[in-house]
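Subject: complex prediction, re-run

Hi both,

The earlier run crashed halfway through, so I resubmitted it with identical inputs.
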Amino acid sequence: MKLKGAQIFFECLKKEGVEVVFGFPGGAVLDIYHEMAEHNIRHILVRHEQGAAHMADGYARASGRVGVCLVTSGPGATNTVTGIATAYMDSVPMVIFTGQVPTPLIGDDAFQEVDIIGITRPCTKHSYLVRDVNDLATVIKEAFFLARTGRPGPVLVDLPKDVIQAQTDFKYPKKVGLPGYRPTMEAHSGQVVKACQLLAKAKAPVIFAGGGIIISESSEELTRLAHLIQAPVTCTLLGLGGFPATRPAASGASEAEPLWLGMPGMHGTYQANMALSHADAILAVGVRFDDRVTGKVSTFAPKAKIIHVDIDPTSISKNVEVEVPIVGDCKNALLQILEYFQKEPIQGMAESRGQWLDRLAGWEKEHPLTYSNSRELIKPQYVIEKLYEIAGREAIITTEVGQHQMWTAQFYKFDRPRTLLTSGGLGTMGYGFPAAIGAQVAFPDKLVIDIAGDGSIQMNVQELCTAVCNKIPVKVVIINNTYLGLPRQWQELFYDKNYTGSCMEGSPDFVKLAEAYGAVGLRAERPEDVETVLRKGLSINEPVFMDFMVSAEENVYPIVPPGKSITDMLLT
Amino acid sequence: MEKHTLAVLVENSPGVLTRVAGLFARRGFNIDSLAVGRTDRDDVSRMTIVVEGDKPLIEQVTKQLHKLIDVIKISNITDDEYVDRELVMLKVTADPGQRVEIMHIAGIFRARVVDLGSKTITFECTGTEGKINAFEESLRPYGIKELVRTGKIAMLRGSKYVALSLAQTREAENG
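This time it finished cleanly. Structure:
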């Protein structure tokens, strides 16, 4: 029996196990929307296509499954670009379906025509323009395969209107034929041995882990290895949750994990930056040595021999020269390293590690993460600490981008993978709220909280309508300092307090705004209200905006001034 | 800065050239020359890319190219024995009185006349990049009207070759 392209589209999604599509209709994709009712796939109607892309991203990061969005041609497609670039930078598996004008019109500047393949080429893992309905099933199969395998990423499929209207026999291919695509999964055993020998000799080793740990589902292996070789661990922003920040205490409560150093880099902890700078060996796993982590590259980790495990060969020796490159899946490499050390325990480890760990503890004691609390003003860090006390390790936290994001990374204790969803690479304001909606769709019963700033939340606030209409009970904690906090902080520290453009006075009343959308709005203006508002807000089973009026000119510390070495931290 | 010659097998699909060219532009790699055409297989094209850069840069170029889904195989043949050729077509001003002199120069380079105008001669000449450069320089004093070069193509000497592996061939055929 012949099927229309639009029907084949849904048959393919079913074969891929897709349960939800985040989308927004338009002329070029109406044939697909016409078929949608016939198929058992949930559609979340967004209010702006950027929201659809971030929701698919949040869904994917929270669940590990491929996120899917569907938009129309032209502006529908271009509106997804920020979302695609965000996913690309952070290696998120996504398939973006865009409508396109009919093939005979392509290139004629037709109504709502845009070369979305061209526009997104630098920020997709791959992309397809389907010119023939007979290729549709193969393309969709390949798109999902590419999105989720190797180093995951967004794949865009452009669907001309005449292609989804045309008919053909539906046959879903069993295998993909991509001769140029064969990611190296298994780490080279010789390189692994070299790495282990280097680690065995090290007196001051550090494990430096990133988003690759989360993506490859290897936080358990990482944790076992760290304990086995007694190596302290620091995780990048995207790696947070890959190694538990706390451990169960004798009392039954939890306490700080002694091997945990916190996040490194520009707003990293003193001890994490000192550890990297004094380490004699670094096991870097699933990281890409981003400039926000390394600071001045020429002075990064000056004493360390670096082992770098990554599935993407281009990440290795791109920014930082490494001693032992290992291309492969993080999980596979960690398992091999574990196996080595299980057979060959490190001689005299207790003694040499004792000294190193004492030194690290000394650094932490010298300059712990801290802030001065106040009885008069709500301190943003206090809101996040309280939120952690109440919401705990099970909640899924998303963030926007800015000071609140860094305070979240510093003061929320992430113990589990996929509990922090944040735009690390692209740094996209407006990411966290739609991402939280996507995560909540993946986990309807979990507490999902977007920690936002008063600037960021306004970048995709229209999605509150999506949350209300679809009964998606996400919570938003707005750290409202009436500034674009990070630009203001930089202006204070590096631009003579010239606050041009960073003052956000005149923002809407977020409580009324929430109510206008049919959601719940709450506000805290004094420190004693913080806990009450959080407890109340988190207990309501609907979308809630909680507006915390915090001290306006609080800064994120430590901060490594741009271009400086990570040991050059401003601490207060 | 060294020049490196890469032999790159790619899927003969629309957009592959843009992907490769875009990658070079985006990452700030300089292409010295790029020549592309299909191979003995309709579905596979071969690019010969000459890039200038130090070793780490070339390594990064190679790895980034590998990352493109359409790129099947990359061989850096710079340090191997290989033969390379470039074709140039060159139109030079030649008044009837100068023709003999110019033809004599062309003869030295084994260039062939492919067209003759009342005031111009058009040559074709193949050879290594160095020879083509020399040919161009020796005709420059007469006035070059137009010049077009194909960019270098290259092939390994002897029985070594750049081709798809068996597994890749099978995959391409099944796919």
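Residues 2-80+160-174 of chain B form a domain with the Alpha-Beta Plaits fold (CATH 3.30.70.260).

- K.
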